[in-house]
Amino acid sequence: MSKTTILTIITVLIISGCNNAGDKTMTTPSTPANSTKHDSSSGYALVNGLRMYYEIHGTGKPLVLIHGGGSTIYTSFGRVLHELAKSHQVIAVEMQAHGHTADIDRPLSFEQDADDIAALLQQLKIGKASIFGFSNGASTTLQCAIRHPQITDKIIVASTFYKKAGAPDWFWKMMGNPSFEGMPQAYKDAYLAINPDTNALHRMYERDVARMQHFPDITAEQMKAIKAPAFIIMGDRDVTTAEHAAEMQGLLSNSRLAIIPGGHGEYIGELTTPQNSTVIAATVSMINQFLNEPAAQ
Questions:
Q1: DSSP-derived secondary structure for 49-95
Q2: Is 283 a domain residue?
Q3: Each residue of 197-225: pLDDT tens digit?
């Protein structure tokens, strides 16, 4: 498959949907407790010394979901998970120190997270999977494609950058003077609903901040070496500049790019963003189209 660009100035219908204030209501993403539309299970796997929590939903070709920093499965993917599970076997995970997965005494890094994903798939006897990462989870997804190409089918990297220069100056100024009080209350509530340990919550926040403050650039050569078909998604008011997203698309030899009206994760209905069902449905449709395309010859 030749390199294709979807520079999504997404149709008049979707743009009008973004401006429909009546559709921008905050609702709580669905959880396993109220999902009966498809087969689901959950459990823990011991991977590289970490007791990692995961959920499996649906049947079909495997698709791993990796949440963003400070988040859980449902704060990042609660409004799209069950739609994706209608046509895929979704393996949704919670990474070290997040949600149901407790922290352990080892560094927090995107490389280690990628190694944990690879070990989990091996334990689940899944030879190869597509991987969809949002924000920090997208950084882990890139590392999966770099470090474990043999288990990586296609990748979806949403709202991320491969080097620090890809984020605008305001983002790094914010990261230079962070405060726990500035962490979205929705993230705090979601974490504490799973684990009421406020010290663990503070520790997770501090470790996520430190990882971003010391964000390790991926080299252009490493990006060019990624052979997995890639779909880059971002909002036009995201933490990544449009110029950087286009640069990423140019480095990945078999890639597509969608720039969707909205902020960080709004296109998938991330918990802290408005919910616009038209935009979310369009994003799921584009993801399914990408995943269902035959591999390049």
A1: TEEEEEEEES-SEEEEEE--TT--HHHHHTTTHHHHTTTEEEEEEE-
A2: yes
A3: 999 999 999 999 999 999 999 999 999 99
